[in-house]
LacI family DNA-binding transcriptional regulator (Micromonospora zingiberis), 698 residues
Amino acid sequence: MGRNRVTLADVAKRAGLSKTAASMVLNGREGTRLSAEAHQRVFAAAEELGYRPNVAARSLRTRKTATIAFVSDIVATTRFAGGLIRGALDAARERDHVLLITETQGDAAFEQYAIEAILDRQVDGVIYAAMATRRLAVPPAILSGPVVLLNATSAEKLPCVLPDDERAGVTVAETLLGHGHRDRIALIGRNRQKERDPEISLAAEARLRGIRATLAAAGVKLLSETFCPEWLPEHGYTATRALLGRPERPTAIICMNDRLAFGAYQALGEAGLTIPNDISVISFDDDPTASWLRPRLSTAALPHEQMGRRAVELLLDGEAESPSFVPMPLRRRRSVGPPAGSPWVAPHD
Amino acid sequence: MGRNRVTLADVAKRAGLSKTAASMVLNGREGTRLSAEAHQRVFAAAEELGYRPNVAARSLRTRKTATIAFVSDIVATTRFAGGLIRGALDAARERDHVLLITETQGDAAFEQYAIEAILDRQVDGVIYAAMATRRLAVPPAILSGPVVLLNATSAEKLPCVLPDDERAGVTVAETLLGHGHRDRIALIGRNRQKERDPEISLAAEARLRGIRATLAAAGVKLLSETFCPEWLPEHGYTATRALLGRPERPTAIICMNDRLAFGAYQALGEAGLTIPNDISVISFDDDPTASWLRPRLSTAALPHEQMGRRAVELLLDGEAESPSFVPMPLRRRRSVGPPAGSPWVAPHD
DNA sequence: CCTCGTCGCTAAACTGATTTAGCAGAGCAT
DNA sequence: ATGCTCTGCTAAATCAGTTTAGCGACGAGG
C-alpha cells in the first residue's frame, strides 16, 4: 500500500529548501522567519507532488497519531452500536482523527489483548463504550491516557457520556398526562436486578425515578407495575396479557423499552384492542422497529449519534462537566392518544 | 498515552546484548546464529520489563502496520453492519491485526477524505463494504494495495465476498415444496429496479432466480408475484392486503426480505389469519426482529459474521477463488407449516 | 604458519517525519 | 574596525524499531 509515496525530502528538494523549512511551512509554524517566497515554493511543491505526510513517521516523533480507540464490550456488533459509532466517526473526522475499533466481548483475555493492541499503536485516547447504560470497571491499562466512558460510568469518576434517562422518564409521563391519562396508567418492565445493580443497568432506575416523580407531582398513582425477568418482546407480551386479565383495564401502558412495547403490541393485537383508541403505548429507546409497528410507536429516543459525537468532543476538546447527559428526544408518533371513552381531545403534537 | 514505555533498547541492555540481537530474537528470525542462552536472556528481559513494540516505529521500517481499513458506504451504522464488523474483527484478531473504520456516507468528498486518511496511516489492506449487496465503482486510490470487496462486486473483478442469494432462493423454495405447498405460493417484493440494476442490488435477481428454478424443476408455478417500490414493512403490508383481496388465497407467501415479511405479518394479523395454520410465511435476511415475531419467522439468514470473517481471510491469507459465496443458512422457525386444509404432516425440522 | 570458514554477535544505516541548535550574512551603532 | 542584533535558513539529533554489513575469535585443513 503506497510503496512510492512522496516524502517530505522530495518536497524540500523540489522547493530548493531544507526538510526543516518544508516541515515548518507545511505545519504552519508561527514565529519562523521563512520568507513569503519560501512558503510559496513549499506549498507549490507539495501540491505538485501530491505530498501526504506519513502518519507513522510523524507520530514516532510527536507521539500523536490522530487516532482514537473505540473499545466496546460488545456494542460494535449490536443494532444499538451503529449510532454510537457513526456519531463518533463524524466528530472524529471533523477533528481530522480516525477510529480504531475493537471489541472485548466481555471476555477478560480478549480485553487484555484488545487494549495491548491499541496501546501498541499509540492511540491518542480511548473511548470505552458499553452496550447497556451501566457502571463498569475500567481496565487499569487504559488509565495511562485520556479516556471517556460512553454509555457508562465507573468508580473512578472518569469523564463520561450518558443518556438522560431520568429526564426521559419525565417526558414520557408528562406526555401521558398531557393526553389526559390519569389513574389508569400501567407500567411494564420493573426489574429488581436492573434497578438495583448499576453494573447491570443505570437506565431502569433513572427512567422509573423520572416517571414516578412526574406522576406524583400530578397527584397520580400508577395503576400497576409489572415485573419482567428481561426486557424482551416475549416478556412484554406476557406482561400485557396478564394486565388485560385484570379487572380494571389501563388506558395507557408505559413500557421500559421498545422490545417490551413490541410484545405489548402483539398481546393487544391478539386481544383485538386498538392502539391508541383502546390503549395508548409509550416507551423508551427508539429501536428501528418502533417505526415499523402499526401504529408507529411513540418513544423516547436513545440519542446514540449525539452520544458518540459527545464522547469524541469530550476526549479531544476536553472541557464540559463530567457526567455529560445527552437528552433523549421524544419521538411523537401515533401510539398515544386520549384515554379510551374520554371526551378529551388530543393536544397538537 | 504510554509515555514511558519500555523500548527495545531497554530490553537489549537488560539482556546484555545489542538491539539487533534483541530484535532478531523477539521476531523469531531463522538463520540467526544467536545462542540459546541469548534467546533466554532476551525473552526473560522482555518479559520482566513488560516490553511491547511500538507499532509506529516498526511500520516505519517494515511498511507493515498490522492494520486493516474497513471502509463502508454507510454500512457501519446500520443494523446490518454489526455482524460484518464483528466477523472482520474476530478474524483480524486471530491474525494479530486491528481494524480502522471509516464511512463514506455515499459522499464523494467524504470518501476522498476517508481514503486519504487511511492511506496516510499505511494500512496493509482495505475492505470496502457496501450496505446492500451490489456492484459498485471502486475509488482508484485504494487500488494501489490489497483490496477485498465485502457484500459487493466491481467491474475490476476484484476479490469479493458475497452472500449466496441464489442458493438461498433455492432453499426457500425447497422448504415450501417440502412442506407440501404447490400451486398456491405467492411472492412479495418483485422490484424491477433492484432486479435490473446491479448497482442497486444483486440480491433481488439472484433470489428470484433460485426460487424460480426450483419451483420450475418441481413443475410448480407461482400463484402471483407482487411488486413493491421498496422492501419496507409498509410495502409488505400493502402487498399482503392486496393478495388477500384476490379470489384465490395463497397457502404460503415468500417475502423477498424480513421487513416485507414484517408487514405481511401485520396484514395477516389484521385479517384474522393464523401463521402458519392459514398461511405460511418465509423470507430472507434474518433480521433481529425475525425472532421477535409471533410465530418466529423462518428466513434464510444473511451470514454477516461469516462474510466479515471471510473478507479478512481473503485479504490477509489470499487464495480462495474470487467471488467467494457465503451460504445463507435457513433459520427454521415456526412460520412455515403444511398448506391450510391439507392432510399433510410437516416434515421434521 | 597461514588461510579459510563458521560462530556469535554488534555497529551503523535506514525508515520519514519533527525539533533543537546554530550558522552566515546584512544592517546598524559605536 | 568591532561588536551586536536580526533575518533567513539548515545540519543534525531524535523517535523506536529493522536490516545490512561485517568484526573478532576459534578451529580445521593444507
Summary: Chain B has three domains: 8-53, 64-163, 165-301.
